[in-house]
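Pilot study result, target chain (78 residues):
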Amino acid sequence: MEGLHRQASLARLIDPASIAVIGGREAERVIEQCRRLGFDGPIWPVNPKREALAGLACFQSVDDLPAPPRPASPSSER
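Predicted structure:
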């Protein structure tokens, strides 16, 4: 059973159903990269200070997302 659990966990990273991207400029780059790679699921940017990232409306908080993201990608400025 442990092997199946690992495969399921890895599958969420390799083929996510949705992605939450948390941050600012770096999060915008993650969104653009996801699009270039052909990701066709929902991408939910989270940023309480911005209205949009890469043309997508921002959520103010992770609590505001329509569903739990699989996975979330926090990003930060250097």
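One observation from the pilot: The chain has one domain: 2-74. A full batch analysis is planned for the follow-on phase.
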